[in-house]
């Protein structure tokens, strides 16, 4: 898997000055476009589109400093329709505009070419099972929140507090399916960088109709990889997400599939037991 992913990285370099076709990259990597984007983001720490943008601006920066071509020619070559658009993107990455960088020979940022290697760390195994599940519905309430990598997510904490304990108890009483209990579902995530927006839904799997003050989220038939963990809260749960994408997927034949991920958590003081459901395809 990593060898083919590196072949896709090499193809990005070949196509930087033209169009980078993500569907082609996915075929080279032997996976789906959706899984390639999720895998790349988890491994690299930035979205694939952002990596391509930063590589283009790195190449453009070298041409700006060389002084051989006009700034408009460089902007056009790297996909910008005007000097203004190029200058905004250039400044966002390098902290200085292209004209100033050329005149003052400023030090600029560089996005290195990424390659991926397998690193073996420790001997910890990851407990999981594969579950085939028909379509079902989740009843609860949803919102849009920013991504937080470490520590509590204030937006989620405030949202759940806003639902209130009585409503959460009524919600939990509706549950009659697997996974049981209150669930946190996340989907439609824009990226992996801190602050990226995603949909968050608090609810239960149920066959019952939603009360007037709640809504229904339909989840299609799917295959699920189910992971379990236990440890300090919330670090253990956040590390489980990271390890699934950076360790488990590269070591197995499954790929992540589109759809919501589901997390069930039991908190006891500073310790939590968690079960994470991720839709997959083989």
Automatic annotation (TrEMBL):
Coiled-coil annotated residue ranges, if any: none
Keywords: DNA-binding, Transcription, Transcription regulation
Annotated ranges, domain HTH araC/xylS-type: 6-104
One Pfam family matching this protein: HTH_18
GO terms assigned for molecular function: DNA-binding transcription factor activity; sequence-specific DNA binding
Keyword Iron-sulfur belongs to the record: no
PANTHER family linked to this entry: RIGHT ORIGIN-BINDING PROTEIN
Protein name: AraC family transcriptional regulator
């Amino acid at each position: 898997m990593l060898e083919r992913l590196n072949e896709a990285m090499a193809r990005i370099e070949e196509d930087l000055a033209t169009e980078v076709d993500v569907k082609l990259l996915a075929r080279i990597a032997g996976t789906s476009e959706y899984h390639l984007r999720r895998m790349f983001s988890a491994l690299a720490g930035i979205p694939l589109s952002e990596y391509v943008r930063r590589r283009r601006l790195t190449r453009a920066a070298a041409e700006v400093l060389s002084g051989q071509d006009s700034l408009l020619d460089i902007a056009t070559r790297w996909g910008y329709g005007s000097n203004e658009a190029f200058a905004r993107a250039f400044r966002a990455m390098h902290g200085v505009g292209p004209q100033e960088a050329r005149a003052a020979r400023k030090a600029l940022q560089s996005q290195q070419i990424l390659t991926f290697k397998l690193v073996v760390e420790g001997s910890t195994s990851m407990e999981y099972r594969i579950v085939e599940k028909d379509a079902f519905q989740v009843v609860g309430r949803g919102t849009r929140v920013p991504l937080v990598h470490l520590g509590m997510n204030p937006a989620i904490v405030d949202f759940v507090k806003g639902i209130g304990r009585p409503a959460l108890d009524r919600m939990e009483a509706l549950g009659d399916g697997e996974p049981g209990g209150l669930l946190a579902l996340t989907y439609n995530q824009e990226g992996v960088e801190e602050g990226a927006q995603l949909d968050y839904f608090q609810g239960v799997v149920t066959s019952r109709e939603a009360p007037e003050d709640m809504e229904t989220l339909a989840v299609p038939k799917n295959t699920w990889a189910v992971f379990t963990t236990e440890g300090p809260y919330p670090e253990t749960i956040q590390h489980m997400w990271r390890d699934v994408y950076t360790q488990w997927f590269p070591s197995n034949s499954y790929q992540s599939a589109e759809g919501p991920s589901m997390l069930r958590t039991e908190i006891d003081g500073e310790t939590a037991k968690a079960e994470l459901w991720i839709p997959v395809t083989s």
